[in-house]
Amino acid sequence: MQPKAVARTRTQPNPAQKLALRGAMMGLLALALIAVQTVMAQARPESLAPLAEQISPSVVNITTSTLVEGRTGPRGIVPEGSPFEDFFREFQDRNRNRNGENAPAPRRSSALGSGFVISEDGFVVTNNHVIEGADEITIEFFSGEELVAEVIGTDPNTDIALLKVEADGPLPFVSFGDSDNARVGDWVIAMGNPLGQGFSVSAGIVSARNRALSGTYDDYIQTDAAINRGNSGGPLFNMDGEVIGVNTAILSPNGGSIGIGFSMAANVVTRVVDQLQEFGETRRGWLGVRIQDVTEDVADAMGMDTATGALITDVPEGPARDAGLETGDVILSFDGVEVEDTRGLVRQVGNSPVGATVRVTVLREGNSQTIPVTLGRREDANGESTASEDEEDTPAEPEVSSLLGLTVTPLTDEMREELGAEPGMDGLAVTEVTEGSEAFEKGLRAGDIITEAGQQKITSIAELNARIDAAREAGRKSLLLLVRRAGDPRFVALTLDAD
């Protein structure tokens, strides 16, 4: 016997029930609104005054004074006997200084900035550009007391300077926090001396992280807390009163704050300050390679699955060459940390100790291998020559060929001299680039020198053609070229036409 079907019906609420239901919903909405407001109140203090009072004594105004040589300006040149001759002579006589020299006396130029005390014995952090070139530096404290400061050390790469003052007693100071813990949306306070108006506090949030402006070691926190001229060198605080950044720059079309300010992250600053405090200078690790990012087309030309790592374009004299790294290697990891791009690698190498031996994993000809490298010191390498030893010249072929949008010919001695190439350099000189071609769009120009194709050295057009054929046979969509211009190398991947 089949069970009987059960009929289900929906009963419509009467007006009284609708009214009660609406009232319940409004009550729930009100409770939710109260809960949100409670959370917001807990996240943002009712007033920033207690925090400002706590940290203000450690923030300082910085006044610098620089002796500027008097400028004579353009001198009037008039012919002898001119009616203006006496006028110019009197004008110059009035501007003679006590030594009888025909130049105005030197004058003093002043500039303002900000800073903060990081130890009770008087170490002060500020921006390098605040005190650069100054011969007198005066520190004004929140109390109004003024002390003369000396420079302990500077680092133009991160725009950080460390100063020292001698006080009669311990000074109020602040500590650095872990800037890596700062999240986009966290509340922050900027303090300093904007536009020379004296101590000032502004509040905002962290707008972005890991911003780069123009420096090699940049790691900026972006904030909308008001930062203006004179705030440079001042601290950016979190809500715990810890310094998580040093206010350095603003993005502005008119010179004033539009809510886009940049503070160098504290985790960069602390490394610099520790070295300046210990050595009076920075000591960064140095690998000794020239590198570029691995783009999608470069990765395809090299047979890589993903566009990651740092591609070595040149290995001058230095630690990398001594260890056996080669042009065309892709650095996949450094000291156990995966390398995503060149910026990350440069920062990691710079943060490594000088003299340390690190394991560098590279991709070479499709295989990965790990090579130990003993790091040098970046500061010692800045002035060194990167020229390689001369090699025996290879006779040039009187041949010209057009391919991949390029017209190329083997290098001759005359071309090497004309293009500024090393006497022993071999390769193909680019004599013409077809406008509108991929090669043109990627920046190749007449005068460039192609030294490698498919990560193999080439000295003739026949070898270039062989590399093209080999890439096609391997199923590659593009060919990787090593191009040099005025000695600077870079890799360029050009798409191969179908047969």
SSE blueprint:
Blueprint: H1 15-43, H2 49-55, E1 59-68, H3 85-94, E2 107-117, E3 123-127, H4 128-131, E4 136-140, E5 146-155, E6 160-165, E7 187-192, E8 200-211, E9 220-223, E10 235-237, E11 243-250, E12 261-265, H5 266-279, E13 285-286, E14 290-293, H6 296-301, E15 310-314, H7 319-323, E16 330-334, E17 337-338, H8 342-350, E18 357-364, E19 367-374, E20 376-377, H9 378-381, E21 401-403, E22 406-410, H10 413-419, E23 428-433, H11 438-441, E24 449-453, E25 456-457, H12 461-473, E26 478-485, E27 488-495
Antiparallel strand pairs: 1-2, 1-4, 2-3, 3-6, 4-5, 5-6, 7-8, 7-10, 8-9, 9-12, 10-11, 11-12, 13-20, 14-15, 15-16, 16-17, 16-18, 18-19, 21-22, 22-23, 23-24, 24-25, 24-26, 26-27
Main location: periplasm
Organism: Sulfitobacter albidus
Region (Disordered): 374-400
